[in-house]
Design goal:
Helices cover 34% and strands 29% of the residues. The chain is of the alpha/beta class. The strands form four sheets. It has an eight-stranded mixed sheet with strand order 4-2-5-14-8-13-11-12, with helices on both faces. A two-stranded antiparallel ribbon has the order 1-3. Strands 6-7 form a two-stranded antiparallel sheet.
């Protein structure tokens, strides 16, 4: 990838804000692990031309809402902690968890998140060794002889806990798949976008995906309490614009990243 194409998140922020001053600057953090097609590369860097569907959606929605977005990448748990402190204004792709509401604010309708103003919908699946004893019938996981691998800070950890399934957390799905392939854990619960991409590399020929999916969830942009309390109308406007852009441009963007 050429130097002119790959830019640090900090530099991109400078370039995007170097023209006429924007009404507002939104400091947005997102995970430094790839979640294709939503964001690409395991890096603190951003590909300016192909950053991912979610970045393009947030960037377009922000522009239409009169906001300049500056992006930075960091580990997911740090994204949430930085949001809680108000060091950043927003983060994404965040599934809804009630205990995450201490970190920031979701778009809500009453006591529930507003699905219409989501940024994406993602699915988690179970991955096991081929011909292994682990199974999932849509209600319970059977055949486990140890904890299920899961990514640190991800909501699937709590989902599995509610099923009575113990988990072993790692910072990346790749780490979990390596543990599974070497028979150190009996299964992995991962987002399909990550798990399927790892299977497609051919690096894990003894691993397979289990059907049906474990769970399907909506994902959102979250604002810090500090930002939302001070600029509520602006936050609400951005969520609304995000829904409009997703409906209008989403199919085109997904097609772009399927090539």
């Amino acid at each position: 990838m050429g130097y002119g194409k790959l830019l640090s998140a900090a530099l991109i922020g400078v370039l995007w804000t170097s023209g006429a001053p924007a009404a507002e600057v939104l400091r947005v953090a997102y995970e430094d692990k790839a979640q294709p097609p939503y964001y690409l590369d395991d890096s603190t860097m951003m590909d300016a031309d192909r950053p991912g569907v979610s970045i393009e959606l947030v960037r377009a929605a922000a522009k239409e809402a009169g906001i300049e977005a500056e992006f930075v990448r960091m580990p997911w748990v740090r994204c949430l902690k930085s949001l809680q402190k108000g060091d950043i204004d927003a983060t994404f792709n965040a599934s809804f968890k009630e205990d995450r509401m201490e970190f920031g604010v979701y778009p809500m309708v009453g006591a529930k998140p507003d699905s219409a103003r989501r940024i994406a919908t993602l699915t988690y699946s179970l991955y096991r060794l081929k011909d292994g004893p682990v199974s999932w019938n849509g209600k319970a996981i059977a055949g486990l002889d140890g904890p299920v691998g899961a990514q640190s800070g991800y909501s699937i950890v709590e989902d599995l806990g509610r099923m009575g399934v113990k988990t072993e957390e790692a910072q990346a799905s790749t780490t979990n798949f390596k543990k599974l392939a070497s028979k150190r854990i009996p299964a992995v619960a991962a987002q399909d976008v990550n798990g399927d991409a790892l299977l497609a590399t051919g690096e894990f020929p003894n691993v397979e995906k289990v059907n049906p999916p474990l769970v399907t969830k909506d994902y959102f942009v979250m604002f810090s309490h500090q930002f939302y309390d001070g600029k509520r109308a602006l936050a609400e406007k951005l969520w609304t614009k995000l829904a409009e852009v997703r409906e209008r441009d989403g199919a085109k963007l997904y097609a772009k990243y399927s090539r």
